[in-house]
């Protein structure tokens, strides 16, 4: 199979690794690790100092029991009945550090409303969620009803989830299944049916679902759009143009079995095309270990994939390398990481073909002041390819800001998928640490567009 990767000239890699967006990005931290100081809501510099005391590597590489698969060799630090702790009194240093971070950078909502901008540091911890939500007990009591009604439950959930992730228990939910026989049907109606039909283990608590959905949201968001068993339907979610675009991609992704020529058993060897998925402005999605993306590959057993992570923060997992352009080969998949400017990358990666190429923009912030200008030269290039372009956002506002930005720019485009909730959004809430009243979910919503195609109509002579 011919490689569709072309290395870039060093001169093209001019962007610094950390752009202004890295500080303001809504999802600049890695899943799982994000629990130390998440920032889905934070187009704010919330996550810079307290995060990453926990790496994905610790979950995905070193926890396999060496002897008996059914006996944990790990001594849990925390029992399941003991997962709730006020942040400042947590047995885990990483969680205590978070309380310090909030005290230094957070806001007391009552102070904020009464005499902004002089807010006293939030150091009073709500007894129900354990987060330092207010400056004093007095301000807490004043605001208690509001706090309870809107965010306390979410904060409590996040508190326990974080302690669970660091509890030291064997996390069976992260022991993902391998390939399955191509005749076994996969149901992509929702997280439950997907996990069940793919044979995931131990998915019997909402907490496990939150952990796993957070890690798998990126590959499953891609897979659920592209797959022939997609939950998105013509008329309801997809436009006619959307169905046409996806039909082109599915033609490549689901090759027909021709009796006598291609057999179900050997289709893999007959795959002649590679589907290229371009993740632009990539951040957290590029930090996921390759085996997470294999869950996407297993949905399409006869297709080879290239995933291109492009953007100043596109950094491979488990590396401190400063190489601006890297390839990682992993079974059915090749990963390309490149932090050059997209305009330069585009010229190198073309030509593009709507049957083989698709773009994903995860929480791009098209309308956000810090990133808007960076996207302006990119979008027309993407529309020019006539390939499908899908985008996500972390809440309804974020989605609608992007959608309005696209509509107001006057591009010649067709909508493929109307903005809607993403079936495979992360179920985990991420808290804005500078203002605990705000939370969001990774890949909460999704939309799709494509550069407009004009059918040539015969003229009457
Ligand atoms: Zn206050
Ligand atoms: Zn509370």
TrEMBL record:
All copies of domain Mitochondrial splicing suppressor 51-like C-terminal, residue ranges: 252-432
Record-annotated Mitochondrial splicing suppressor 51 zinc-finger domain positions: 108-165
Pfam families per record: MSS51_C, zf-Mss51
UniProt-listed InterPro entries: Mss51-like_C (IPR046824), Mss51_Znf (IPR032717)
Recorded superkingdom: Eukaryota
PANTHER family documented for this protein: GH20023P, PROTEIN MSS51, MITOCHONDRIAL
Record-given protein name: Translational activator for mitochondrial COX1
